Amino acid sequence: MRTQTMSISEFMSGEYRKEKKSKNKISKIASSVLPISLLPTVASAQTPEAVPVGATEWMSEKALETLAHALDPLIDLMVALSFPISSVVIIGSCFFFMLGKSDRAWTGIQNAGLGYVLIQIMPLLLNVLKEVGGAI
């Protein structure tokens, strides 16, 4: 490391950062270009180019991922509880047969079965909806 002395005014003005002009510019240019010209040329593939992605696109993708997975615990809970709840509703509907209200019993059994099936395929429907939204 070389010690350099300077006055306070040179330091404050920033003159020490500027290169002093040399008389022999051609020799500097020749010394820097000459080694490059002596290097052999190598045939290589083109360098990969980065595709610029805007911050808004990145944020929208992250927001979509966050929102898509925010309801996963609730969906898992609904899928897990759908069988016991539909079983209770079906058993309750069977009591309507004993009371002589068979129309209401069949309606309750139908609704419980349809609700169970829809809750079981809800994750699939949400994935389809997410793919359709991503394609637009």
List the helices and strands and how they pair.
Blueprint: H1 8-13, H2 25-38, H3 55-70, H4 72-98, H5 102-135
Helix pairs in contact: 4-5
Describe the protein in words.
71% of the residues lie in helices and 0% in strands. α4 packs antiparallel against α5. With 136 residues, it is mainly α. The longest helix is centred in the C-terminal third of the chain and has 34 residues, at 102-135. It has five helices and no strands. The chain has helices spanning 8-13, 25-38, 55-70, 72-98, 102-135.
Radius of gyration: 38 Å
Shape: rod-shaped
Q: Which bin fits the share of residues in helices? A: over 70%
Structural class: mainly alpha
Note the total helix count: 5
Keywords:
71% helix; mainly alpha; 136 residues
Short description:
By secondary structure, this protein is mostly helical.
